[in-house]
Design a protein that fits this description.
The chain is of the alpha+beta class and 161 residues long. The chain is 28% helix and 34% strand.
Length: 161
């Protein structure tokens, strides 16, 4: 939860119970990054296995139930949250962890054909990583992310695996 609080504004932080449910529902869909020198948590990557790419914008809602949408053999992995502590950012760590995590998810979740994620339109560094990795925008959810005076769009991105 320390990583969640350091990475996101309070309005979009997900709860401890949501993370616990995600881990319980799909243990092969949650990764914690550890600093090799200190052995402290440095980041995390949370995902969910689904039967199809979400068509309903509500399926992307914050703090949604992973149990409701989980499909054990589903071909889609929804990358629900990715965060790295501020002291590890800006050094290529995020890009490396994202790439390594995608490989890990594919290896530990056979049968995946598609990855999907939702990102805030203002998070340029994240957008850059995802685009470099081959994700492409497929639609927008208008005003999804609270962001100061106005809400920012959520960009739905997909990639065939």
């Amino acid at each position: 939860m320390k990583i969640e609080k350091a990475s996101f504004i309070p309005a979009i932080q997900e709860t401890e119970s949501v993370f616990a449910e995600r881990i319980r529902v799909c243990g092969n869909c949650f990764i914690i990054f550890e600093d090799e020198a200190t052995h402290n948590a440095a980041g995390y990557f949370s995902a969910e296995r689904r039967a199809a790419v979400p068509k309903d914008d509500g399926d992307f809602s914050l703090n949604h139930s992973a149990s409701r949408t989980y499909a054990a053999d589903g071909p889609v992995i929804y990358l629900s949250s990715f965060a790295v502590l501020p002291q590890y950012r800006g050094k290529g760590t995020g890009r490396s962890l994202f790439s390594d995590s995608m490989e890990w998810f594919a290896e530990h979740n056979p049968g995946l054909t598609t990855a999907v994620l939702l990102v805030n339109e203002t998070w340029k560094n994240a957008l850059h990583i995802y685009t470099q990795y081959g994700f492409r925008e497929t639609r927008r959810i208008r005003g999804f992310f609270p962001d100061g005076e106005r809400a920012a769009d959520g960009i739905v991105m997909e990639k065939k695996l």
